[in-house]
Amino acid sequence: MARYTDPVCKLCRREGKKLFLKGEKCYSPKCPVEKRPYAPGQHGKDRLKMTQYARQLRSKQTMKRTYGVLERQFRRYFAEAVKTKGVTGTMLIRKVESRLDNVVFRLGFAISRSHARQLVNHGHILVNGRRIDIPSYELRPGDEIELHEKIRSNTDVKKAIESRTSGSVSPWLEVNYDLFKGKFVRMPDREELELPLDVQDIVELYSK
């Protein structure tokens, strides 16, 4: 299975914003975006004119990198969103938001989406009582997510839960940290997500 293996902080610097791909490090002064707020590479400090195409491309790359999806799969999500009844941008958001690894992260069981993906890959996540090891598994409203007993005492999992118990989870999810269980209640609405991009840019880019 293809996956990105280079330093993920470079992705944040390239997009010029924090994508929160490294968990706790993203909130600390050690974050490379804070220390070097310019694109990586020899010409990273150069000021380039942002054309309409460049803006659309950056929006697409930002969304892909935020959710940890590669180009081929992202194009498939867009093709499915176009065929689904409703606003294409909203359907695309729902496709990536209903991924199992994303929901595990949103529930607060993982410190980052990459950590959530690792938990799923290693078989530590149960969906409706059945072990699922596919990060891109698409959840449906009503599905219940649970951490396997063997991983509940894991240091990173504990740290993730402790950092989330003080806050609230997304309104389309429910969680019970005492039981290590969560529920995918419904599909999210576009207005409920604070994404650092304009989804319409992606729709226009792929529609050319």
Architecture blueprint of SSEs:
Elements: H1 9-15, H2 32-35, H3 52-67, H4 71-83, H5 88-97, H6 100-107, H7 113-121, E1 125-127, E2 130-131, E3 143-147, H8 155-165, E4 173-176, E5 181-184, H9 199-206
Antiparallel strand pairs: 1-2, 1-3, 3-5, 4-5
Helix pairs in contact: 3-9, 4-5, 5-9, 6-7
Could you explain the architecture of this structure?
The longest helix has 16 residues, at 52-67. Strand 4 and strand 5 (181-184) form a beta hairpin. The protein has three domains: 1-48, Ribosomal Protein S4 Delta 41, Chain A, domain 1 (Orthogonal Bundle), CATH 1.10.1050.10; 53-95 and 194-208, Orthogonal Bundle (Ribosomal Protein S4 Delta 41, Chain A, domain 1); 99-184, RNA-binding S4 domain (Structural Genomics Hypothetical 15.5 Kd Protein In mrcA-pckA Intergenic Region, Chain A, Roll). It is of the alpha+beta class and 208 residues long. Helix 3 packs across helix 9 and helix 5 (88-97) crosses helix 9. The protein contains nine helices and five strands; from the N terminus they run H-H-H-H-H-H-H-E-E-E-H-E-E-H. The protein has a five-stranded antiparallel beta sheet, covered by helices on one side.
Major beta sheet, specifics? 5 strands, antiparallel
Strand order of the largest sheet: 2-1-3-5-4
Mean pLDDT: 85
Instruction: Detail the poorly predicted runs.
Output: none
Let me know the number of strands. Answer: 5
3D shape:
globular
Instruction: Give the class from helix and strand content and strand pairing.
Output: alpha+beta
Key features of this structure:
208 residues; alpha+beta; Ribosomal Protein S4 Delta 41, Chain A, domain 1; Structural Genomics Hypothetical 15.5 Kd Protein In mrcA-pckA Intergenic Region, Chain A; 3 domains; 5-stranded antiparallel beta sheet; 9 helices; 9% strand
